[in-house]
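From: lab user (bench 3)
To: helpdesk
Subject: output format question, protein + nicotinamide-adenine-dinucleotide

Hello, I'm new to running complex predictions and I'm not sure whether the block I got back is the full result or only part of it. Here's what I submitted:
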Amino acid sequence: MRTYVITGAASGIGKATSELLQERGHAVIGVDLKGSDVDADLSTAEGRADMVEAVTEKSGGTIDAIIAGAGLSTPTVATAKVNYYGAVGTLEGLRPLLVGSPAPRAVAIASMASLYPPDEDLLHLFLDGAEDDALARAEALAASDPQTANMIYGTSKRALALWIRRHAAREQWAHAGIPLNAVAPGIIRTPMTKDLTATEEATKSLLEMVPMPLNGIADAIVVARLMAWLTSEENTHLCGQVVFVDGGSDVVMRGESTW
Ligand SMILES: NC(=O)c1ccc[n+]([C@@H]2O[C@H](COP(=O)([O-])OP(=O)(O)OC[C@H]3O[C@@H](n4cnc5c(N)ncnc54)[C@H](O)[C@@H]3O)[C@@H](O)[C@H]2O)c1
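Helpdesk reply: Thanks, we reran it on our side. This is the complete output you should expect:
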């Protein structure tokens, strides 16, 4: 039996992953705003610190895997806070608890939306700037036209994917025996996408933006199974990979350009 910490565990992909791992006999410490084992607001530094304290207490100081899944897709500054700082804060804050595990693992949920052109200013501020400056830039985007405001989501996910690439081979992760990876889902049927897939017409236009030639829109369990493997003992050598589980949107959009 392994102990997993899953953020965003009260809904959608986090909930499906939590249920899958529990069915397989593992212990899960779920984290969410409410409705899970640990109530925490991961959009603030204080909320993240409280989360780490509560998880440390509940786990007795050792966990086997972190699944950083909490996220928002609204065109707001809250999305910048949770998707980037919430995820990175979860990974960095809980990493010391992995040290006592015989098979420590970590995964974050990025998105195929990381493929869309980002707001370059916000991207650089996320990765190399101060949090206050990044959030000020996100505020400015949020106050702009809808198309510009929508860039917050894809930019936050691109920054998260790049953070994983930047850190996976470093001392604290690979050298400490911890595979650190991300998944990048296409459209998944969860409360987050409910309105976007409410009608046939809406679904059709969504699939024009996010082409999914392989089996179309997926259920949350599809991502859950992949994250369960990425955080299992079997995953000994995947390092810093951003695994697209997207029915083919990455292949359609990027083709052969990744080499
Ligand atoms: N559904 C999709 O099509 C899709 C595609 C790509 C990536 N994703 C990503 O997958 C992850 C899970 O999304 P989902 O589709 O299951 O959505 P969801 O809305 O069903 O679940 C997200 C969970 O995150 C929690 N959360 C939001 N803000 C939080 C905060 N400040 N503190 C703590 N928890 C917070 C929510 O309460 C919710 O329970 C997100 O990171 C999302 O961006 C989803």
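A quick orientation on your result: The CA atoms of residues 141 and 149 lie 5 Å apart. Let us know if anything else is unclear.
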